[in-house]
Amino acid sequence: MHDVAIVGAGPVGATLACALAGSGLDVAVVDARARGATPRGERALALSHGARLILERLGVWPALASEPRAITPITAIDVSQARGFGATRLSGADVGLPALGYVVSYVALQQVLDDALAAASVAVRHGSAVERIDVEPGLARVVCRDGSTTIEARVAAVADGAGELVSGIRRVHRDYAQVALIADVARATPQDGVAYERFTPQGPVALLPKGDRYGLVWTMSPARAAEVLALDDAAFIDALARHAGHRIGRIVAAGPRRTFPLTLEFAKPPAVPRAVMLGNASQTLHPVAGQGFNMGLRDAFELARVILDTPRESIGARPMIDAYLARRRADRHAGIAFTDGLTRMFGGDTPLLAWPRGTGLALLDAVPPLRRAFTRAMLFGIR
Known about the structure:
It is built from ten helices and 20 strands. By secondary structure, the chain is an alpha+beta fold. The radius of gyration is 21 Å and the shape is globular.
């Protein structure tokens, strides 16, 4: 029997595997993708400084930073609301950091993590999709869809976004009835490391520095998205300028565009004896403020710390699970409430909310200690 079975070798599952490598524990990793494949294609991830620290501790950050165009620093975030007063700028300098975070290539991050697992002799069983996980008093049984592979472990960590694999863990789902349109856009002036988050009555619109361009995330209704996707580049740029306002600067070019639905979904509870949900399997958040992926990395890193602090024979048992839940409770609840609250408070065209929204932004801008505390919570989570 293995000590730990990790389902999913994407960035979150690979982070857990890397954190356990060299510990002497017997770790089995299964992944549905073929070896070397990145099924989500090339996309960008927003990593906080706290996430960078995790990758540094795993020893993979230098390799990632050495990849050409793999990372783009975010030195500041300009936050404002349309049709109302109040704006603020969160800066790395406010908290003594060179950058608040980084826009990172998903493909590059996956590659350096794959390389780190290979260097640590952590075997990954690729092409093994999991059908279900049976939780028993003394073990978790991971059953693969090919019918020939079953893995038994003291604890199973699910990091592939499929929390329904484990009975006894229900999913809470909320459909925001919106989609995010994403594209790469170019500005007339070069990007200077500043990201933009603009709250509008239709939802937030964000621009993240990405190489010499910006990654656009534009929230809208599905009907509006269909209209916008049908526009040619010139009309699209004009629609974006009218929607986002002048703070983002003048957009002069736009790349291919696509959309994905926006939902809130989380596991309740995120862990039971012998099974733990991580990353999207634990919580899928609205992309506003870029908290979801960073929370997933914290899930993996904290689970590794709890496992390493637990006697081998007690891995996966109720005391270890309770210790993990206690370590993650405040950060997880705060992250879910924060992103969901932002979408509700800033995502509606309600005149009565314009003043409290503006007041909150104005206070962040006017009170440096409050701004620093808010920034640190975004970077490192709630502790």
